[in-house]
Sequence to fold (454 residues):
Amino acid sequence: MQYDLIVLGAGPAGYFAAERAGKAGLETLLIEKEFLGGVCLNVGCIPTKTLLNSAKLYEKTKTGSEYGVEVGEVNFNHGQVLKRKEKVVNRLVQGVKAGLKRAGVNIVEEEGYIQGTNGGPFRIKAGVNEYRGQNLLIATGSKPVFPPISGLEKARAEGFVLTSRESLDLSEVPESLVVIGGGYIGLEMASYFNAAGSRVTVVEMLDHIGGEIDRDIGRVLMQSCQDKGIEFKLNSQVVEIEDSKVVFEEESGRHSLTADRALLAVGRSPVISGFGLENLNLNTEQGSIEVDERGQTSVPGVYAAGDVNGRSLLAHTAYREADVCVNNILNKDDVMRYEAVPSVIYTSPEVAAAGLTTRQAQKRGFDYREVELPLAYSGRYVAENKDLNGKAKLLIENEYNRLIGVHLIGSYVSEIIYGAGMMIDRELRVEDIKEVIFPHPTVSEIIRECVFQF
Fold:
């Protein structure tokens, strides 16, 4: 059978594109070698947030008396957390499968391999069968980065070094844990295991945590983590792993940390090999598939969405990229805009951002001004939080008085940031935002409070 669209990979980009295409009437085939929902749903976004929610509930319960809620001894049951995680994942996977079925998508649970085209339909082999498609969407996702650290492979084989994927299935909480990498994955896992009882140390080669997040926000997050007992080694590069020791170098010399486990979380890279991509002869750039603003590769009829194109390795970006690709396959002109993609770190407190940071605005030569306010300006935030360390920072471009960046740390900010991203994407001016009616009392009102400083 020949399909209108074959999708290779069933992560957020793949399954969403397949469902959208099927609903639009396209004969669609989805090929996935491992599991529906990809890394995000099965061993990434969803399971980690399930664990983190349990950790937040535990931390809140321990301080319940300060809110007038008296409880007895509070214990953390890691095994029960894992059981609930499995239930959550299974339920959502079944939901994805049901959605694809309703859309009329055919699913092949085999490893797909691109055979080529020969000027006609694209030929994909999966299992013993070959399938043909008029269009092809590549959504093969990403994989963990393994830097050239001496002893790393041996330590992984022995089970001392884990990736975030393996750490989600640890049957017991390690007494001590070294997290290699202070980006969002490393910080989230450090936050969970710290709450669960581990002595956690984060080793980060940069002079700050959180990657590209605003530095002021990052300092607040780091202080909050330190107050909970997480230690940080910044400007420190891991050079060797041996005998349950993580060896790192910093300005003062070489040091080591002994731990029960080590978690490697230094980033992810696009998967562009192992599935016959070379048979299409399309353009790649810095280890990712090159696409234009419509998701189109250099080969007509071939699209790439999600982590594989290297533009923004976030599940919510993948959903939108998938939508853009399908719209263009349907001859509906649509383009990607990356200026206001929200990002979130689901630690406690949460961090959320959209648009430009101070450093990015300076680097790009913007004439802008900033306003910072503590989240204590929000009545709800004060009513519901003991530690009032949250804050908001807004960047306003001066020429048109429009919003170009929003950075938040505190409770509920992950649920607020989409609105800030929409304001930036729609190029709202300060006077436009002042006309927006925010519900009261909510933490979202901090954005209103910020713009009324001008």
